[in-house]
């Protein structure tokens, strides 16, 4: 039986013409060359290569290694690019050009699609804000009076934005030796594990500080 083309999707596929998410990926053959891709079915279209082959006026944005240039171009360009991508994927006239540019999803690695310079985080979840408020203000109101009108925002660390599945090494922290020295200097953690139990009713301990945790 002939192999089905990656452009021929079964009816009802969640990543069909109605849903074309963008991302940034690399392939095993070029692990350091990041490219903009568009998911279609269980494949990823190399959007930069497709734009170059079609002499697209948006080849520069789609040939970048992040989505920043495309996002900075504005809504008219976003709409034009989406129309182009939809045409490449669905018009039989482009099939011979586009099929070789489709990569099976399991063979690619996904990366953070944006360069994040800065961002503001907000306590947008009432339950999260309430729990945090109880910790910070145990003897006061958990939620400040203005919260439901204007959730509190704060500066976030751009370096903490990572792709799901990225291994995270648990910080080792510091400790204050006993007896407390005159100047209260904290020290790096001891070489032996000093992690506290996960719960007072359990003897199970936190993972080793050298063991990566998955987000």
Automatic annotation (TrEMBL):
Active site: 128
Binding, substrate: 123, 137
Residue ranges constituting the Fumarylacetoacetase N-terminal domain according to the UniProt record: 18-113
InterPro entries found in the cross-reference section: Fumarylacetoacetase (IPR005959), Fumarylacetoacetase_C_sf (IPR036663), Fumarylacetoacetase_N (IPR015377), Fumarylacetoacetase_N_sf (IPR036462)
Keyword list, A-Z: Calcium, Metal-binding
Gene3D superfamilies linked: Fumarylacetoacetase, N-terminal domain (2.30.30.230), Fumarylacetoacetase-like, C-terminal domain (3.90.850.10)
One annotated GO molecular function: metal ion binding
Domain of life: Bacteria
Residues binding Ca(2+), per UniProt: 121
Region described as Disordered: spans on this chain: 168-215
GO biological process annotation, one example: L-tyrosine catabolic process
Listed cofactors: Ca(2+)
Protein name: Fumarylacetoacetase N-terminal domain-containing protein
Species of origin: Streptomyces antimycoticus
Organism classification: Bacteria, Bacillati, Actinomycetota, Actinomycetes, Kitasatosporales
